[in-house]
Design a protein that fits this description.
By secondary structure, the chain is α/β, with parallel strands linked by helices. Helices cover about 25% and strands about 20% of the residues. GO terms for molecular function: glycerophosphodiester phosphodiesterase activity.
Amino acid sequence: MELIQMKPIIIGHRGVAGTYPENTRASFLAAAKAGLTWIELDIQPEAEGQLVVCHDHELGRCSDGQGRVDAHSLQALKQLDFGGWFAPEFQGEQILTLEELFALLHEYPIAINIEIKVDETHDQEKVARELYRVLSVANMDPQRVLLSSFSHEVLTICHQMSSVYPLAVLTEKLTAADSKLMKEIGAVACNINYRALDEVTLEQLHQAGLQVWVYTVNEPEHFTLKDQVDGIFTDYPGRFI
């Protein structure tokens, strides 16, 4: 399955994370209302396995809570403030479930790169199964979804479970294992740290039929390959548009 877009795609990183609290309702609505065609967000399970939108496994940086996300029930997580850390006007932002996120953006023509945030403590098959359940219930158009992860295990499980939604391998720097995995799972893209991308690697990935999406570029003038890549994740989409 191919991702068809103008080049390069500008992807709002965790919504519009430079000017709104990341991965929140306010941030995603700002991205949608600004007319972005793509956003990126992070999901992970809470204590009972429901998928919530949050980047860190620990709560301390982006909320007034403490401990791991998966040590708390959704009910407990909903009592926490996920906006006040960023600025007082965002106080009271609640964590979103993936289902709530889909409902929030249903009326907007926006596509979503879902990063699956898992570590060795998670049952990765269970996480993948719940992700596909939520996607199915929401009846998400496969052209509006890209699933990505640093975890080779969870991407392999996703590939084995379904071929409906396109996959991308996330990496800090392209490795032989990354290249092997992308071939095995039929990945459509490599999402790579822009600092680790040079013209040789870019050409290698394009020759393999892969799109190249780079993260996280906040100063366009410092990234010389911006007109040659297929997608750019940024906290400040306005600087590119």
